[in-house]
Amino acid sequence: MKPVEKSESSSNWFPDSSLSQLKNKSKSFSMGSMKNTNFKKIAISNNLTDLREEKVKIVNITQRPSKFPYSKAKMVISKQNIMTKLFYNAMQDIGNMNLQIRNSLHEILEEIRKLKTPKKIQAIFMRTDYLLEKTTGEMKQVETNVIACCFIFLGPLLNKTHSLFYEKVLISDSNKKFINFVVTIFEAQDKNYLKNKNIGLMIDNETSIHCANFHDKIEFIKGIKEKRIDVFHVKVSDLQQNIKIKLKNGETKNILNFIENKSNWREWNDCEIFFMDRKVSFVYYRWFYNAEHFDNESIIYRTLFEISDCVNLPSVELQIIGMKYFQILFKDKNILKKYLNIDEIEAIYSNFGDFKKLENFNFDDQFDYILKSDLEGGGHNIYGEDMLEIVKRKDEKYFLMKNILSPSFNNKFIDDKEERQVVCEIGIMGCLISSNGEIIDQQDCGYICRSKDVCSKECGVSCGYGALDSIYEFDE
């Protein structure tokens, strides 16, 4: 395998000339059968497009903001720092937990975690998703997401597009805050990061313009470049000939040396990683959120990055804490007391969902609960009588979560001609960075709104279940 080369068309790195592909595709784009509306034109010009297929199409977005009650969103935004504190403190305690997680992903992550020594810099960027419960008026947590959070950049672009046509749209600042979050990581990792030309890697399963959420990723690369930081979008297969490793004793090694010394991997802790002769400060995973994403080569590189002095987002500790298993664990106030004070627990506890273990399933639960799995990526929930087969075979990767009955709002998806009723799922983002155990940055980081048809069971936009949306900055 030859070393990959940097594209001359960009200061960032695209192994298969993604930018030239994008230019050619843009030239051939036709409005086709879509109505030639100003809104659609502006959505396209703002890169709210899906390039996974040959025919470019607009990401499924709503034609206007939904009238979701702003006061409810504002309330959970104010609580996001408690959620990041909970996850951070739980990460520090993970070695003492007797976790009863039985899945392949946890096994992979736990084996890597056991090889690590404590790291100087720890970072969290997470999203907490909520539905509004109709009868109680409470915002109820659906789940948390700590890896490959989508629409950090496209969400604000849609908010701004909506704001051209509607007043008082709540515009998320998740894009700006994520950029500042990454800059703070670089500063904490190496004060001379600009002089030393340190870089970041965004590791993905696909790096062409046809990858999922391409524009969300490219907006990050462009935004961080404005801060004079290069982030290279790479696949695992791009790494071998371009990685060098510098041990703490000054010796320089390559990946083959690392593989050959598997029995001594703990001794490689805090090594420095160089990609194309530039030091890597930050590794951002847009893949590896399910066990099937890992092969032997991926596990080797994930291990190397985790034991190095690079800041990993997420780290294996954070990814473990982000598993759905912890939704049940954190429902126990005695466990929460280890990580939060009483006031903090009371502030967030009513927002937690209601759960049951599979072994406690009753026949009538098929009407009031859904079966959630520990898999990520959407489309894995089981409903109604389909639950009975899973319960019968006692599949331990599932647990029961009580249905959250939410109010619906009038809206239209991008290609709709008629009004439909939609349910809004609000995702609140937040970050935390610590250096030598001291928190140096912690804040909420904006929101995204994803809306699904009232008859739909799932809400994922990338999976085709829902639409990206905005909300207003006022209550009617």
**What is the 3D shape?**
globular
- The tally of helices reads 16
Sheet with the most strands?
7 strands, mixed
The CATH class label of the largest domain is Alpha Beta
Structural class: alpha+beta
CATH-defined architecture of the largest domain: 3-Layer(aba) Sandwich
By DSSP, the count of extended strands is 18
Average residue-wise pLDDT: 90
Helix content: 25-40%
Question: Radius of gyration from the CA trace?
Answer: 22 Å
Give the end-to-end Cα distance, rounded to a whole number of Å: 61 Å
Beta content comes to 15-25%
CATH superfamily of the largest domain: Glutathione synthase, substrate-binding domain superfamily, eukaryotic
GO molecular function, one term: ATP binding
Binding site for ATP: 324, 372-381, 383, 401-404, 425, 452, 458
Cofactor: Mg(2+)
Pfam family, one: GSH_synthase
